[in-house]
Amino acid sequence: MQYPLPIAKLIESYMKLPGIGQKTATRLAFFTLNMEIEDIQDFSKSLVEVKTELHYCSICGNITQEDPCEICRDERVDRSSILVVEQPKDILSFENMGEYFGLYHVLNGVLSPMDGVSVDDLNIKSLIKRLQDHSVKEVILALNSSSEGEATAMYLSKLIKPSGIKVSRLASGLAVGSDIEYADDLTLKRAMTGRQEV
Amino acid sequence: MYLKQLNMVNYRNYKQLNVQFSPNINIFIGKNAQGKTNLLESIYYLAFARSHRTNVDRQLINFESPFAKVSSRIYKRQTSNILELVTSNRGKKASINHLEQKRLSAYIGQLNVVLFSPENLNLIKGSPSQRRRFLDLEFGQIDNRYLISLARYQRILKQRNTFLKKMTYQKEPDFLYLEVLTRQLVDVAAIVIELRLKYLTHLEQMAKDIHFQISNQTETLAFHYQTANYDFKQKNDKQTVVDFLINQFSKVQNREIKLGTTLIGPHRDDINFEINDKDLQSFGSQGQQRSCVLSLKLAEIKLIKQVTHESPILLLDDVLSELDSKRQAALIEIIDEDIQTFITTTDLDSVSKELQHKPTIYEVSNGNLVNKGVKNDPK
What we know:
The structure holds 2 protein chains of 2 kinds.
Chain A: H1 5-14, H2 22-33, H3 37-52, E1 55-56, E2 63-64, H4 70-73, E3 78-85, H5 88-97, E4 102-106, H6 125-131, E5 138-141, H7 147-160, E6 166-169, H8 185-193
Parallel strand pairs in A: 3-4, 3-5, 5-6
Antiparallel strand pairs in A: 1-2
Chain B: E1 2-11, E2 14-20, E3 25-29, H1 36-48, E4 67-75, E5 80-88, E6 91-96, E7 99-101, H2 104-107, E8 113-116, H3 128-140, H4 144-168, H5 175-214, E9 221-227, E10 230-232, H6 238-259, E11 270-275, E12 278-279, H7 280-283, H8 286-308, E13 313-317, H9 325-335, E14 341-345, E15 360-365, E16 368-374
Parallel strand pairs in B: 3-14, 3-15, 8-13, 13-14
Antiparallel strand pairs in B: 1-2, 1-4, 4-5, 5-6, 6-7, 9-10, 9-11, 11-12, 15-16
Helix pairs in contact in B: 4-5, 4-6, 5-6, 5-8
Keywords (chain A): DNA damage, DNA recombination, DNA repair, Metal-binding, Zinc, Zinc-finger
InterPro entries (chain A): DNA_Rcmb_RecR, Rcmb_RecR, Rcmb_RecR_Znf, TOPRIM_dom, TOPRIM_RecR
Function (chain A): May play a role in DNA repair. It seems to be involved in an RecBC-independent recombinational process of DNA repair. It may act with RecF and RecO.
């Protein structure tokens, strides 16, 4: 038996989400059938709005409702440093930390020829443009420590360093609260190289 | 190190098999195409999570079965571990003591195996890729760092090759990014080369002694590791290797962009063998090449013993008939030092009398194994 068209279409839509296969999609679709109409209206409205109301900040590449974004507009932000991240959601991690008060820049990925991502696909040109304004003193690279993330960090530092701006990279090594026992060789090696005097 | 019991389900022509082995010498005897080599292959597979005969895991699964399983308990001096490998069309799952290992690099090395088969006799004459494969497998099973570095190298190499292919057609290629990829590649390449040199030097020392004996004290064997057509010696430290490679890469850059592929690195390196300062590949006789491969294989056993403090398991696939009594004697000398050995043969006559000293003999026919018991000393 085939499902009636509305529910079949809904199942198909759910299956477009990551990690959801046919079974889960079917379960979700039937669950939606029993939801209150207001909830469903809210849900569909936010689905549309996430696409229509949100834009990328023309300065830093973060997602925002108004351009430029909240952080770029904020007068209290320290404008001498820019923290470079891969994804908009990384900004949230740093904001939640509450120890960084500077600007951000979202690359929207990392360089990976295998996946067809080249320099033009990332927000690299806009970053270089931002550095021409002389208020920036330091660029902090906060990219993942995958080999692609590291290549991208190396690329950016080679690009920026000639301008005389300080470029730093996040430290890597042991996670806080973790056991040395469970650390792999590479992590330990990094932790050794980056050890600090106490 | 030895395995006492081997369990197989749907592996090649074995529907279901539970068999006990002797910790000493086990001989599988039977006609052709009965499954003798499949048995050795399954032990090899348990060690490396790949077959030495095929790259297609699907071929290991019995026809019309959804999966194949091989498992065994491996006894070491202090401990024993259960290894299990399940292959299906969804990939393979490797577990140690029933705990699934996410990375194969954590699994490989639990069971150390040295295989000697007739195909190995081509190692000297064959393509460089065969020799690299030999290095990668043997050093990978004794050093986890080697496996991890090699995997990292291959990933960066793939990125670099893809980028070079793109550069071939670009009007204004991004040389800065190429420089970054080269640097990244060189850093890992240096680790791989450093480890290869380290173990190869040990291997050379041991193989040299063995070869000297087999050749009645007349032949001196030597290995040369070649990267970018230069001989490399162990005394090169990592920084020298890095500087050398960067310099070489700058020389071939234009050609690399034109061809769209990486021309230098561990994936292009080779080993040359020499006997009495003469190149073995071009000037060596069949017999010399054979002795060299045997010396190399026996040295491998010693190297594994030295690094892991455990004897590996030796698999001899139909190779005894290829070795004369002198060479078999060299083999026996090593096996005598308590190495669990599995031998396949079509008839016992080709097996030297000394090797028949109390082996356990199994008759293999059509995916079944019959224990013929311990053969008593023929003397």
